Amino acid sequence: MTDKPKHLPVEALDDWTTAVCTELGIDRTSVDVALLLDLARDVAHGVARPAAPLSAYLAGLAAGRAGGGRQDTAAAVAAITELAASWRADERDS
């Protein structure tokens, strides 16, 4: 067992994002952290918590296929957020 914290402190989020972008060869300025965190929140509350990371991944995939710019990410996030706002799992089960 290690003494390392299991959760990333909020103040380390920028450092983590920069490190991941560097590791993956992604331009850090193309990543809108607040937009993605808002997406995760909206999906977690409107659909289900496990749908949040999956939705963030799908937004990134769609943005990459559309060109990979900030506008592409924003468009994908907007579409998913709109869907999450209108999502009613109990209505979809019927």
Topology readout:
Layout: H1 13-24, H2 33-46, H3 51-66, H4 70-86, H5 89-92
Strand residues, percent: under 5%
Helix content: 55-70%
- Helical/strand content category: mainly alpha
What composes the largest sheet?
Answer: none
The geometry reads as flat
Question: Residue-averaged pLDDT, rounded?
Answer: 89
Low-confidence stretches: none
Rg, nearest Å: 15 Å
How far apart the termini lie comes to 47 Å
What kind of assembly state do the chains in view correspond to? single chain
Tally of separate helices: 5
- List the secondary-structure elements in sequence, H or E: HHHHH
Number of DSSP strand runs: 0
Question: Overview of this structure, please?
Answer:
The longest helix has 17 residues, at 70-86. The chain has five helices and no strands. It has a domain at 31-88. It is flat. The protein is 67% helix and 0% strand. By secondary structure, the chain is an all-alpha fold.
